[in-house]
Design a protein that fits this description.
Length: 447
Amino acid sequence: MSFPRYPAYKDSGVEWLREVPQDWQVKKFRHLFRESIEKIEREIVGSMLSVSGYRGVEVKEYDDDNRRRLDEDLLGYRIARVGQLVVNTMWLNYAGLGVTEYEGHVSPAYRSYDIAEGLERRYVHHLLRSGIYVQGYTQLLTGIRPNSLQMSRDDLMEFPVLVPSSREQLLIAAFLDCETAKIDALVAEQRRLIDLLAEKRKAVISHAVTKGLNPDAPMKPSGVEWLGDVPAHWELKSLRHSITKIEQGWSPTCENEPAAEDDWGVLKVGCGNRDEFDPTEQKALPRDVDPLTAYEIRTGDILMSRGNTRSLVGMATFVPRVRPRLLLSDLLYRFRAKPELAEGKFLVLCLRSLNARFQIEREATGTSPSMKKIGQGVIRGLFIAMPPFDEQREIVTFIHAETARFDALTAEAQRAIDLLQERRDALISAAVTGQIDVRGLVETVAA
């Protein structure tokens, strides 16, 4: 869909803004925003707030109540009032700002600003979070690490702000609120599809490793309530019968950066979080530390996280062909399938299935949801329904084909999300900089 443009434009005087509508003004941030000095002194105001690059200001969610700050820890935190602009100057390259619809408090590293009369809050929200403005901020950020680049107070005060007439601000805000809501609904639909595909993927794997591939195969009770019936010719065994001894790695002090290809690296627990082994999840072993080569990872190893969040503790992964000089860490267990009894890839599929995850999450210990642990005894005692060796391989081949199909559908949905978000960003930037004239569109859009 093509949009109309304004009849006349002028040079904005700002290189990255380029041309803007003839009647629009360009003002400095300092003339439109006044920093609030309100801080928590005694009473706590509202909830803890944070800024999302996609959604703007939102109430901070905690996955672990132990991470919530005590009231005495919040003294000195900045107060954010409804309608103020909240800015995280260390995240401006990720659109770390927005006009808040909530009253609450934010980290002292944030700033809150009152917005001048005559500025429409929703227009300000869309303008200052637009892709073109993020590009403008990025040119002025300084620092060493990409995730902590910061804009100075002086640079922010001098930053150019586009100001159309009050009526145009209202129309632009209404247009973008409507159009972005439509796009967000389409994105949410694709995200729901991805969630459904993930659930179906898990269900297919779990069914294959507990019921087999032959729907007409005679079944028998497994004797385990949560497992139900299994094929009559399968054996229900604890994992100890199908694996070698379980090893635990070591914990040297490592560099923060990953190891170069020819250097020694120590695997991080995240190497097994995804469906496939991820060898990039590792830290460099200092060159003055002698590697314990007995812990070097080999093709065919099965790795399992010893400690992690509840949903990831005990997550298993199969190591395919792997580069040399990667070492087992202390938060990982290692074992192998006994070659005469079990196929390693089949065991990993079993261990990642819904049934095994039920056992693992039930037995994981620890008071914090952010760090649960599982012992070797629990792993060895996990129940696995074991088909004959050849049938294990058939199931692995089947699951590989089915998951490839699900992954392709998921990738297609993700591409749709990416395109929708690109369109959203482009539409916002075009509207707030006057590259499209929304004055005759809002009634149509609203209808």
